Amino acid sequence: MTAVQHDEQAAQSETAQPGSGSQPVGDTDTQAPPAVDFDTNPGSYRHWALSVDGDVATLTMKVDEDGGLVPGYELKMNSYDLGVDIELYDAVQRLRFEHPEVKSVVMTGGLDRMFCAGANIRMLAQSSHAWKVNFCKFTNETRNGIEDATEFSGQTWIAALNGTAAGGGYELALACDDIVLIDDGSSTVSLPEVPLLGVLPGTGGLTRVVDKRFVRKDRADLFATKSEGYRGDTAVQWGLIDATFPKREWDEQIAARAADAASRSTRSGGQGVALTPLDRTIDGDTIRYPYVSASVDRAARRVDITVEGPADSPPADAAGVLEQGVDYWPLALTRALDDLVLRLRTNEQDLGSWVFRTSGDAERVLEYDAQLRELSQDWFVNEVGLFYKRLLKRLDVTSRSLIAVIEPGSCYAGLLLEIALAADRQYMLDGVYEDVDADATPATIVLTACNDGLLPMGNGLTRLASRFYGHDDALEAARAAFDRPLDARAADEIGMVTSALDDIDFEDEVRIALEERASLSPDALTGMEANHRFVGPETVETKVFGRLTAWQNWIFNRPNAVGEQGALKVYGTGAKAKFNWERV
Amino acid sequence: MTAVQHDEQAAQSETAQPGSGSQPVGDTDTQAPPAVDFDTNPGSYRHWALSVDGDVATLTMKVDEDGGLVPGYELKMNSYDLGVDIELYDAVQRLRFEHPEVKSVVMTGGLDRMFCAGANIRMLAQSSHAWKVNFCKFTNETRNGIEDATEFSGQTWIAALNGTAAGGGYELALACDDIVLIDDGSSTVSLPEVPLLGVLPGTGGLTRVVDKRFVRKDRADLFATKSEGYRGDTAVQWGLIDATFPKREWDEQIAARAADAASRSTRSGGQGVALTPLDRTIDGDTIRYPYVSASVDRAARRVDITVEGPADSPPADAAGVLEQGVDYWPLALTRALDDLVLRLRTNEQDLGSWVFRTSGDAERVLEYDAQLRELSQDWFVNEVGLFYKRLLKRLDVTSRSLIAVIEPGSCYAGLLLEIALAADRQYMLDGVYEDVDADATPATIVLTACNDGLLPMGNGLTRLASRFYGHDDALEAARAAFDRPLDARAADEIGMVTSALDDIDFEDEVRIALEERASLSPDALTGMEANHRFVGPETVETKVFGRLTAWQNWIFNRPNAVGEQGALKVYGTGAKAKFNWERV
């Protein structure tokens, strides 16, 4: 089930009364669109071409107009939809894992005079509110991944704008470290969303212009209200781009910049790890991967997710790790959980609560936990850790209630404990389920240095530091408890769990908590969680997800944008938007 | 015109198509409610009682059930509406200006077992979206003012919760430095908005719980989903309150805490300055105060605001300043502009652009500018500067486009230049209007140390530092230009203005800019400006206005809250809210 709908049905949905449910509404012949799938590979790309030449890769966007993910729009002028971005995400991931030799990535366009026109307007206009919001979230995460590659993987992205970069096209460029625009007398960079569509640039544009590119506020204001954008010199002077060159110098200059970025990289080179197809089995309401499984309870609007610890000890050294490749336990579980998160977010919007459990041998988890730190200088182990970090960040911005349950048999240790720390609540059984297995070993959790540095949140703090924000003494106490099993009482004492009850009360407590959660307004929960999860400092990343996204979601819900005469709806029809002029 | 409406009409408004306009809709007998007025004084309070005993003031909330600002609801259980908060704002201001002897303020309730039930739900349910948003903004600003008094005026606020503090009642307490709850076996603190109303606490609650009181995220989650809240010990342990005492110890403990806070204050004592009624004249579409006037152009949906410089040089010393009292030019203009901002925001929502001009002698402005800094140790001069700082912060969070026009005859110097820095754009005429007065002196601006420290924004940076965020060299260049007149070319050169054109182009440029602005989606502009105005670091204050407010506005616009079966609408009717369960 997806939320993509055609005009009339979308309009119906936008004005639906609460309680009418979120029925999947199909396309014109009433077929519900299939669930969105995130599997792809360069051989089946329809919209991008990836080529590698020595230590420089070139990723060329040439969107197949007829290749929209759902019917109802044509992807003209390199405009994109979720399907285009799924391929981009795949390319970003493969460049990191399959190409340790690639030290700089040139992103350019395959059309003449138009690099990318941004998100497809017709697609946005016909999409439900939830679809638009989810689409923006995923595209934001992919762009953050590009910045992450530049910062932490020695793989610098260069935007070689061989034509106009409008809206989302310019936002794509903003994720790159270096933005070069062709000087052809007509190509510009622009953010025309406000003047043309009555919405905000939805992929971090406003924030990155002032907080990453440091463009002066009044110039940012001019820029974001000028639909045609700015060309070379002004764009360079204001900081919107880094350089502009005429066509005759283009290839040479781009090559020089790519070579220069590559020369500054410490990326190792060597043999990559092929991201082979995921081993995923869907059986009714159950999804299984190696090390991850999920079971849906539709009546309770809940999904129970179990992450399994490793079956064996880790390989002895980096070479052994590399040999395991995608089967290396931390990577296998990260890939699986990443796919699951994306599928649930996109295809299962009614499942409001995600309940996490772990199962396995904590000692073995800790061996991998130690290895991630010990071998962090190895390019592949580094990439695995960074991917896991990005997955956890996805959880932080997921608009679902995240609940961790800690029971006998669990292995919430170090890097797996991080899942519990990402959750909104942590419920830990004190003791065992007497009526199930009175001889079981009571659950413990283990904190490690992994929880204190390797996996920061978007706010720059670890989840542990965020948990104890403003309480340095509590943070120190938690640090003093590293590397040893903490039973429920000990975990509770140092503030690591929300609740630690014995089995007489535990099951009732968890059941009631989940029932109560499922009764609350989904919107209020989303807003509440988005405010609680990020304490303390803010960064470009948290501003994009916290401030910009919230305003965009508001605007996406307003008649001035999405009403029948709203700017987003009438764009391209020749009609003029009609606004309610009230400033709110 | 206000936006307060009764149920059916409000519902109509919520689903109005863009372009239907924002017609004022009256109460049941179709009378449009009068424009909201912010003038009041302790003698005419209906909802609060202010008493002063030595260096401790007591502010007691006892809301008149029949004293709602507009018809349609009863203010039971010390619930509040905008009218109640207007009185609170007045009290906060008078305590600062009229009572230099007051060093601590005890805020308590005049009812039994209920300190304050928060914002009136029926009022919220019947209000338009714009009204709710504006109401929340004003209440947030008043609470920030309480924190400002505690931090900068040596006037510590203590919340003496003699009964339950629910929702906005607890948020009021959160603005205080010290929260004490009575231990009577039943009184609690709570944020029941999410579970009961399907909205967020709208006055900073979520942010202050985690970012000011440092309550752990999972406990904040439990708290904000538990409608009945928490009592004494748990509330103290979690950091929700500072202390709890039984009734028999209550008076003594509160008095001791107030005395302790007062004893730590450096506030001077002495004679206060009476905040006499504002001298305001409304004549059609013109509003005039001493030093401030505004003229409305309804067709252009614009208001032109002129701030006048001082008529004379400032008094020679602090005693002379005190003698002038409310007539001291910086205070007179601040009071006037503050009133104007509030009236325009509340009563004139269709006026999307505010165009600022100044007029007068820059040299005289600079004399006051210097005095504010030189006499900043004087309690009254300090208060004037702080009030002006808060007024400027109001501009920063005002959902209107702010445009500064700098022409011959203007006096944008130091503290008045700050208004231009708060604006989204600064247009400066290079030279003179040849056809108006060819012999006029071209406009100049003057930067002073006032622009570099005295008047920080909510993000903790000055507007000058925000303007040049990420460009330390440009900030240094601006600092090097302090205290000397900069003509248009010089101002442009160091980046102080958006545009500096001669009169052949200037008038067209400004006219077209204003026309274009007036054609854009009001919602998109609001979101855009909210993102551009705050660069760099974030604070509780910017999080409340940037992150929390945006999510709240989104939720306030969703059927799950405000639809006919939404939680906010059906509250109190006995019906159960019906939700669309989709998580967005």
Characterization of this structure:
2 copies of one chain form a homodimer. With 584 residues, chain A is of the alpha/beta class. Helix content of chain A is 42%, strand content 15%. Chain A is built from 24 helices and 19 strands. In chain A, the strands form 4 sheets. An 8-stranded mixed beta sheet of chain A has the order 12-13-14-15-16-17-18-19, with helices on both faces. The first copy, chain A, has a 6-stranded mixed beta sheet with strand order 1-2-4-7-9-11, sandwiched between helices. The longest helix of chain A has 24 residues, at 129-152. Chain A is globular, with a radius of gyration of 24 Å. The two termini of chain A are 35 Å apart. Mean pLDDT of chain A is 93; it is low at 1-33.
Indicate the topology.
Two copies of one chain form a homodimer.
Chain A: H1 7-14, E1 48-53, E2 56-61, E3 79-80, H2 82-97, E4 104-109, E5 113-116, E6 118-119, H3 121-126, H4 129-152, E7 156-161, E8 163-166, H5 168-174, E9 178-182, E10 189-190, H6 193-197, H7 205-211, H8 217-225, H9 232-238, E11 243-245, H10 247-263, E12 281-283, E13 286-289, E14 292-297, E15 302-308, H11 318-324, H12 329-347, E16 353-359, H13 362-374, H14 379-396, E17 401-406, H15 417-422, E18 425-429, H16 434-437, H17 463-467, H18 472-480, H19 488-493, E19 499-501, H20 503-519, H21 522-532, H22 540-556, H23 559-562, H24 567-570
Parallel strand pairs in A: 2-4, 3-6, 4-7, 5-8, 7-9, 8-10, 9-11, 15-16, 16-17, 17-18, 18-19
Antiparallel strand pairs in A: 1-2, 12-13, 13-14, 14-15
